[in-house]
Amino acid sequence: MLQELKNKVLASEDITKEEAMYLVNLDESRTMELLAAANEIKNKFIGKKVDLCSIVNAKSGSCSEDCTFCSQSAHYNTGTVTYPLMAKEDILARAKEMEGSGAEHFGIVTSGRGVVSDEDFENLIEAFRLIREETSLEVCASLGTLDEKRAEKLANVGLKRYNHNLETSESYYAEICTTHTYADRVNTVKFLKERGMEVCSGGIIGLGESFEDRIDLAFTVKELDVDSVPINILNPVEGTPLDSNDPVPPMETLKTAAIFRFILPTKVIKLCGGRETNLRDLQSLSLLSGINGLLIGNYLTTEGRATAEDLQMIKDLGLGE
């Protein structure tokens, strides 16, 4: 049946949730076969290109939300460095650094449910403008919830893509956050899509969710027609409620990515935070398992590996353009 499902996707037909769960329950002895099938799907619909993006944590910590995985939540004592919004010149310098390292997209991320201050928001608008003028990067942002006025300003300054992760399934969401609802997050994605903006929305695996929760997340972002789907792997932070969670086994991470590719054959599926810690020597295999994007450089509060290593990995696999 694996071969039948692969051929179904290659013929541009959607698989069902029940069929996705069949892939989840495949015997471990067939995992490599599943990964190869996902790679074949990726090759048909995406080709060899690997989408590379980078981010800057432009405002860190003191977040009012209680997401149980997050080191920046004010609800937990994690020792994370906090600071107000970075100066636009510093944001620009970071963008130029990542452009020189090979990034094509650059995302400005701020902690909190949204950028509260009008002054901070206007400073961000100016930072976006400078990056557009002085680099060739596509500018992205993750600034929490938006109202119509701010969304319009971001569109006018040339913002191409907005990140707003759903994190997990609707049924599991209350286990990881109580200060806002799943519907709040879904509505923000819909709001952005209705205004013609590309949306980057995915989640985190390793939160204690079931594999079925991951499948539900994949089908939700499919229904919302998001453009890019980041898969993060929990890297537990001491002081958060999830600091004792068991790590996701490397092959399970790859299996998750492969099934996402079956569900989302034409989308950018990007491996992001936690890949170095959780995949270790198997990072290259992710790019042969349905993944066609990487977040390079450092993450929000943790360090990534040297960008040159990722670029060499892509070259060694015969990928990229």
From TrEMBL:
<dbReference type="InterPro" id="IPR058240">
    <property type="entry name" value="rSAM_sf"/>
</dbReference>
<keyword id="KW-0479">Metal-binding</keyword>
<dbReference type="InterPro" id="IPR010722">
    <property type="entry name" value="BATS_dom"/>
</dbReference>
<keyword id="KW-0093">Biotin biosynthesis</keyword>
<feature type="binding site">
    <location>
        <position position="140"/>
    </location>
    <ligand>
        <name>[2Fe-2S] cluster</name>
    </ligand>
</feature>
<dbReference type="InterPro" id="IPR013785">
    <property type="entry name" value="Aldolase_TIM"/>
</dbReference>
<feature type="binding site">
    <location>
        <position position="67"/>
    </location>
    <ligand>
        <name>[4Fe-4S] cluster</name>
    </ligand>
</feature>
<keyword id="KW-0808">Transferase</keyword>
<feature type="binding site">
    <location>
        <position position="270"/>
    </location>
    <ligand>
        <name>[2Fe-2S] cluster</name>
    </ligand>
</feature>
<keyword id="KW-0004">4Fe-4S</keyword>
<comment type="subunit">
    <text>Homodimer.</text>
</comment>
<comment type="pathway">
    <text>Cofactor biosynthesis; biotin biosynthesis; biotin from 7,8-diaminononanoate: step 2/2.</text>
</comment>
<dbReference type="GO" id="GO:0051537">
    <property type="term" value="F:2 iron, 2 sulfur cluster binding"/>
</dbReference>
<dbReference type="InterPro" id="IPR024177">
    <property type="entry name" value="Biotin_synthase"/>
</dbReference>
<dbReference type="GO" id="GO:0051539">
    <property type="term" value="F:4 iron, 4 sulfur cluster binding"/>
</dbReference>
<keyword id="KW-0001">2Fe-2S</keyword>
<dbReference type="InterPro" id="IPR002684">
    <property type="entry name" value="Biotin_synth/BioAB"/>
</dbReference>
<feature type="domain" description="Radical SAM core">
    <location>
        <begin position="45"/>
        <end position="275"/>
    </location>
</feature>
<feature type="binding site">
    <location>
        <position position="70"/>
    </location>
    <ligand>
        <name>[4Fe-4S] cluster</name>
    </ligand>
</feature>
<dbReference type="GO" id="GO:0005506">
    <property type="term" value="F:iron ion binding"/>
</dbReference>
<keyword id="KW-0411">Iron-sulfur</keyword>
<feature type="binding site">
    <location>
        <position position="200"/>
    </location>
    <ligand>
        <name>[2Fe-2S] cluster</name>
    </ligand>
</feature>
<dbReference type="GO" id="GO:0004076">
    <property type="term" value="F:biotin synthase activity"/>
</dbReference>
<dbReference type="Pfam" id="PF06968">
    <property type="entry name" value="BATS"/>
</dbReference>
<comment type="similarity">
    <text>Belongs to the radical SAM superfamily. Biotin synthase family.</text>
</comment>
<keyword id="KW-0949">S-adenosyl-L-methionine</keyword>
<keyword id="KW-0408">Iron</keyword>
<dbReference type="InterPro" id="IPR006638">
    <property type="entry name" value="Elp3/MiaA/NifB-like_rSAM"/>
</dbReference>
<dbReference type="Pfam" id="PF04055">
    <property type="entry name" value="Radical_SAM"/>
</dbReference>
<dbReference type="GO" id="GO:0009102">
    <property type="term" value="P:biotin biosynthetic process"/>
</dbReference>
<protein>
    <recommendedName>
        <fullName>Biotin synthase</fullName>
        <ecNumber>2.8.1.6</ecNumber>
    </recommendedName>
</protein>
<comment type="function">
    <text>Catalyzes the conversion of dethiobiotin (DTB) to biotin by the insertion of a sulfur atom into dethiobiotin via a radical-based mechanism.</text>
</comment>
<dbReference type="InterPro" id="IPR007197">
    <property type="entry name" value="rSAM"/>
</dbReference>
<feature type="binding site">
    <location>
        <position position="63"/>
    </location>
    <ligand>
        <name>[4Fe-4S] cluster</name>
    </ligand>
</feature>
